[in-house]
Amino acid sequence: MSPGEPRRGSVRRRACWLALLATLALVVAACSTESGPENGQNALRPKGPEAQQIDNLFTPIFWIAVGVGVFIIGATLFVAIKYRQRKGADERPKQIHGNTPLEIGWTLLPALILAVIAVPTVSVIFDQAEPPTDPLEVTSVGKQWWWQFDYPKQAGVDRKIVTANDMHIPTGRDVYVKLTACDDSLPGGADNNPGCNVIHSFWVPELAGTKDVVPERTSTVKLRADEPGTFLGQCKEYCGLSHANMRFRVIADTPDDFADWVAGQNDPPAVALDDSDAGQLFTEKFQCTNCHTTEDSSASVYGPNLTHLASRTTFASGYYELTREKLVEWILNAPSLIPMESEDCRKPPSPFENTCVGMPSFTENTPEGQPTMTQAEAETLADYLLELT
After folding, report:
1. Which of 249, 260, 225, 45 shows the shortest CA–CA distance to 135?
2. Which of 327, 337, 308 is closest to 379 using CA atoms?
3. Which of 53, 77, 287, 364 is the most buried (most CB within 10 A)?
4. How far apart are CA 240 and CA 317, in angstroms?
5. Which domains does the chain have, with CATH numbers?
6. For the whole prediction, is pTM greater than 0.85?
7. What SS3 class is residue 336?
8. What is the pLDDT of residues 351-387, one digit of tens each?
9. Do residues 341 and 387 touch, judged by C-beta distance below 8 A?
């Protein structure tokens, strides 16, 4: 080794310290809740009592875990450094075969910590499962890859309402959401014998915890927003090709605004589906009525109910803002915006062959026997849909 050449051990120690500091910086940056724009899905910023209850449980348990982790890592480092083998020393540690008090201690202490954590955890689980008094009831149906929201006739809702992507709720009132993956509109479904989709998971981080949506089972989640706002949610259980795009919004309105929204959803279609150019394209040429309806806001159909599409803020599973430009692009070639189907997915005679789901492309790989859509036709359909307030 030349006189000016650094020792190999010194270089290694320096590299280890640099790696440790870089890792620490990344961890600290990742844990920050203050930097960067608010993404609307921050479980550490609860905006409702159910989410606040979960956060109140999470925070002390997190710090207990930090304390345990620091103690264990600190003890490990202390022993590793103090009792390391030193160069030139020929020491043999004393051989022992157990320490009964120590072993009892490190068995009882974790059990005691877990018992302390279990009491409030079980309490929160039971509180979250308790049905609220006089809630607004909403049924959420998980489909591929979007959410349908059904409002049955109840206090504040004069007739059944079916919508998608945007779930409106009134502020200051408990909401009891029934979660299902089964519906009469799904393939194989019929009266009293609904078809079922795959497993999903319903999650609105700022308002409530996550709950799985399991085929042939009904689960529930309650939530409440005391202030108006828009809260972002999405599917949290992998459910197929477009799982990451399966989003929705919970829009908390004041009671008066919610009543206005309900009244608007109960109105008949703003534009009748008649013999106009848009009507002919929608019902006959491209057969959109096989999956959608624009004439009955209480009907559950295979695709999203479009009767009041223009009253929503998003479309395409809540992934895109509802604009004319994006809607035209979607109508022409939806799979180019959100992955939904393969080249040979749709074959006659059934639109539900194999695992084919989602809207087909009308410009590429169109279903056999279906016409290709022009830009002008897509614009005509988009203009019609955007009149459905």
Report:
1. 225
2. 327
3. 53
4. 14
5. 38-78+102-253 (2.60.40.420), 277-385 (2.60.40.420)
6. no
7. helix
8. 444 446 778 888 887 767 778 999 999 999 999 999 9
9. no
